[in-house]
Design a protein that fits this description.
The structure is a homotetramer of 384-residue chains.
Chain A (H helix, E strand, L loop, with lengths): L4 E9 L7 H8 L8 E8 L9 H17 L3 H7 L1 E6 L8 E9 L21 E8 L11 H18 L7 E8 L4 H9 L9 H19 L24 E5 L7 E8 L6 E8 L5 H9 L7 H4 L6 E7 L7 E2 L2 E2 L10 H17 L5 E3 L11 E8 L3
Parallel strand pairs in A: 2-3, 6-7, 10-13
Antiparallel strand pairs in A: 1-4, 2-4, 5-8, 6-8, 9-14, 10-14, 11-12
Helix pairs in contact in A: 2-3, 4-6
Family (chains A, B, C, D): Belongs to the cyclic amide hydrolase (CyAH) family.
InterPro entries (chains A, B, C, D): AtzD/Barbiturase (IPR014086), AtzD/Barbiturase_RUA (IPR043008), AtzD/Barbiturase_RUB (IPR043006), AtzD/Barbiturase_RUC (IPR043007)
Catalytic activity (chains A, B, C, D): cyanurate + H2O = 1-carboxybiuret + H(+)
């Protein structure tokens, strides 16, 4: 922890789920050090639901590309880099990659030739990234208290890794979590245990929900005694305003990435967040912007557009069937999945604010913000 | 024309395409005079494409309801009231009816018991509505110059009917236009004539396009000599910033409704518009708001929300495949029609601005605004 | 019951959900007596799921048409004629109406000028139709034993009305049943009762399931003591091979129509059925055909095609995720609802057998046939 | 050509687009020689339209697996093995791989321990496979006569490679062909040339169509002078009853694989075909079956099911909007692409005949069979 570090965020376009051209070019230009990449979050153009193969195709392409560029073994890359693919670019959302790097800060704080890597002055909190993983879960622990509690521990570990002491300095927690399969359920049954749900699809929601509640515990957003197994995916009043969780079949542990601000870092970026009360809550975006020194309006959409490095938000249809008293039809549409409508809506609301469609809006928001709302985080370049 | 008139706009929720409860209640409460209704614009929850049966169901239900409430014959209602149903409530858009009434202003300008019908002071321009129809077209005229030119004439006739002399006082022109069917094409062929397109689906676009160009001609937005048959649905540089056109199988003429402001009226409403350059162009919304004495921001979404009576906009995917340089995927999605994505996007952008999802956002925007953009009109209650 | 009756079936094309042209023409030609119509089953072209407005539009159009043609009051028609609309014409299925008439047989068995109405010889079992309704259910009874038991009673009543004594002579039982709404659930709660499910969409399945189990009870397909509330929608081993049930919001009772053969009738039609063990089970179709004097093969698809008056079948994806050991993808497709895939599949299988796409294939097959299979009934013109 | 060869076909299940488990196991069991694989045809579970990423994911997974299993370089595998992925498993179609091998026949015709590789007696025509490629096309040649003519030449070359002299012994010709991209069109324009279509999506159809017409020319199904540029994708009366063509972005030449029967081979399989006149034409399937010594009926669906090694068919909605005089709704459904309906329908028809859902039914049938119909080929194990 003695050498100061710096975090970089690169927002790169993708012309297809397996298009890594922009990544290769950024490496070629020396803007990205492929060995420093710690995570890639991707917005891909599948349906974001069960049969979305754009996510798998993207992960494959990115893994192979980074392995080749970094001259590392494929397995090593798979182990050391977090790949979180969110399917669904409904409305005007634009497929893109968010590539996160962690580097050691240059020893001498000389005047930077390239603003993106310019070190911050000492003592100013800047973007900090910390990662941690939980132990592997047993199938019967998924979607229940053990998953929540160990996620909370891992969030604290990731904060320590990032040099963040105060939970108020945490603005976004990405969690990748496991799901139940037929085989995993059978394994639990074989040991005489039941599972949170026998529906493998629903198990994704339970895992996301318990993980988000773990984040809420870690950040003090809910009290430990407020939580028990029966509240997971049922008590919508319990949530984290900073968690974004997604479930995948390829792991049995929770992988956590914490984004916050820390004076121990010398990044050229800062991060902030707000909690949207409903899908139209642009005031929450204003809160997020204010905390990174920006504000809504024409300037943000114009010259200020360059200062925004990444926008991350969750979207879900309100279960009440209404938004501010007006009926929505998302939950009754048997042609388009409700989560697709919700991403389109929140994507549109945010696109109007930012004048930008490269927005990481993802679905599956169990216990991630209030019903129909969700967290929104903004990573911005620091003011010059 | 001697008796001053007043126009009323009622925005009513619909819980289903055939739900006319709110209309019946408004009549029961004396807020709507069913015999004064001149038009109903409806946002219904079908897919807004070929097989959208929510529009037909809504039209049937509304016609029967108005005939019953007004104690008029069904055919009479069909003849005298314009029904324009726009399918597609993607994202968070909320199904609703916009009911337009034209009444004679009360003789004595006594203090109004009911604010909605309160007369404006003399000489102040307020919402004016005028309707007109073209002669019936021959099949070979649809999507071509005859349709455009006669639409232009009818727009002028509707302006006269509304007492609007200056084209700058026109802010929204709704056109309902015919389409080609197999039988109509055969009829033209039988007389040795060809038609604009032999594809009946495409004929809807040609009819909408030629109609919009007719509006543009009438309003001086394009020069008459700039137009010929070959430019319809091809030269995207020609458009009206105030036209909204929709094609239906049940008519062979164009039905025109002009919304503008006129000092000859005593309405409690005014109308304004802007032209969105692309789907994210909230500055155009600001222009529309400014012209009706409102402005974007927290107040509009809060207490000012009540002053907005109706928002009408067109949405289409940009044919470039990009928005402000970012790729969109609307045109490549074989699961969701591009026009559905576009409505979701523009609906989201506007919902963020207005804090409201009862927005009349419709698709099919040939020559109605620039590529990827479109007109946006706002009808507001006048400031007290 | 003394005057012999005859039943007629008319299969009529529909060019749109509200196209009643073929019905009007058949009445004009004297082929249909509009006052004798007892039921219309319609295959309409919506998605067959929640937001299918083609069903409502069709019902409206048919009701108005029959009232006009029969010079009867709209309410009377709504009361006396069963309208059962099944949405979804996936694959090649063709939208059509099945119009059922019940008439008194002509007194003198003179040589019929028109084969469709020719009376059968005395004593030969021919198509018989019987209808009955249950008392209205309380919300808490829907999807539970009371609904099943009273449906069983009503099936027996409909058999008596049809003059069918032996359950083996019943080949198809159409049931229209209620569903739960928010208001109905609240009403039950207000009386301290719980309901089968608080999910209004799921309530449709429970109501269909309990109704089908009622048919199975009535026909002796399952034993009364095999049944309890907990088995509804859970024990797939219990089913009727002759029930077809559909849920609608507009009623609180079950409406039953029994189709069978009875020597008391003088119809020119007979009905038979088979039970498809899975979606590919054409041998079950052969069984159905055999019982009406037909067999699969080139003749059926060719000259024999005219003898088939109606084909009615149920379709559902197998919950195992496989058909004859091969994986299907219906349950994992988030773009197309599983029931739509299932109708397309069964529709294709049957279309290959019959050389015909006017097939009444409907979804929602809870307890109507085994998992992944379902009943198939054939109504045929009797051999000359 | 002196050493007799034998062709093998393996039909393997896939539990996901990137599931190569069955392939790996077949290699491990010694049933497949990975170095002898010449082609893999895959039915994958995407939408089969523009944004179908299951095809790319499958190709990636198969290429990597075969390279690993055969210990060959990835580029070599890409060059030597044809990968043809057809997306879309609508209705009950089951995702699977058809792996084609070409081996030298064992020297001594000893009694085979394993029936699948048992050599046929000398002089008996058995399954023969030949491949060939055209020279690379210029963009302006795609969808036009040069593509057709050179495809015809390449079909003849592939026939020679397969030792097939008589065109009547050819039963299925798979063609992979290029498409136009923005860049390719610009390149043609740069040289002052126009292209068949400037719509990149439509260019796929033109390329498939011209390629199919090339096959028709080669097989004498149409006369050379019947063909010119203007007939491609316009004159539906011209077609091949044995072509199956698919367009891909990764090549500029046409890759041809001919399947036929030749006495120079010692395969344990034979191939036959029929031409479906419409989507319900099971008589054409009977023709195909008869030519490989099988017939429709209960035996085929039962014990005979094992004798069928592969079924390959094309499916498209009839452009007339009807099947045997009955309206279909495929072309009017804006929620489900018409080609998806068509695959579901033909898949269902064939599944009923074969009692099997591992059927290679693909869409995009320009000039591949008559309007609404298409070729169907059956590869069968020879009778013992």
């Amino acid at each position: 922890m003695n050498t100061p570090r710096l975090a970089l965020v690169h927002r790169l376009p993708a012309s297809a789920p397996d298009d890594v051209t922009a990544l290769v070019q950024a490496v070629d230009r020396g803007e990205i050090d492929p060995r420093a990449i710690v995570a890639v979050l991707g917005k891909t153009e599948g349906n974001g639901c069960v049969n979305d193969f754009s996510r798998g195709l993207a992960t494959q392409a990115l893994k192979h590309a980074i392995a080749r560029l970094a001259r590392r073994d494929l397995d090593e890359v798979a182990r050391d880099v977090a790949f979180v693919m969110s399917g669904g670019t409904e409305g005007g959302l634009s497929p893109h990659w968010l590539v996160f790097e962690v580097r050691n800060a240059p020893a001498a704080p000389a005047a930077p030739a390239e603003p993106e890597t310019g070190p911050a002055a000492e003592g100013v909190p800047t973007l900090a990234i910390g990662v941690a993983i939980t132990p592997a879960f047993l199938p019967e622990e998924i979607g229940r208290m053990p998953q929540a509690l160990r996620t909370a521990d891992a969030v604290h570990a990731a904060m320590r890794a990032a040099g963040i002491a105060d939970v108020r300095d945490v603005h976004y927690v990405q969690v990748k979590c496991p799901l139940l399969t037929r085989a995993r359920i059978a394994q639990a049954h074989g040991r005489g245990r039941d599972v949170a749900t026998e529906d493998t699809y629903l198990s994704m929601g339970y895992s996301r929900g318990a993980s988000a509640l773990g984040v809420a515990l870690a950040l003090g957003e809910i009290a430990a005694d407020a939580l028990d197994d029966a509240r997971v995916c049922r008590d919508a009043g319990l949530y984290s305003g900073r968690a974004s969780t997604s479930a995948g079949i390829e792991l049995m542990e929770n992988q956590i990435m914490v984004l916050g601000n820390s004076a121990a870092w010398r990044s050229d970026y800062i991060v902030g967040h707000g909690v949207m009360r409903d899908a139209l809550d642009v005031d929450a975006v204003d809160t997020a912007l204010a905390s990174v020194g920006l504000r809504m309006g024409g300037e943000l959409r114009g010259s200020g557009r360059e200062r925004v490095a990444a926008v991350l938000a969750k979207a879900e249809p309100s279960q009440t069937g209404a938004i501010r008293g007006r009926r929505h039809t998302m939950l009754d549409d048997s042609d388009i999945h409700a989560s697709r409508h919700a991403r389109a809506l929140v994507g549109g609301v945010l696109a109007g604010v930012f004048g930008e469609t490269q927005l990481f809006v993802s679905g599956g928001a169990e216990h991630q913000g209030p019903d129909g709302g969700g967290p929104v985080a903004v990573i911005a370049r620091r003011a010059p």
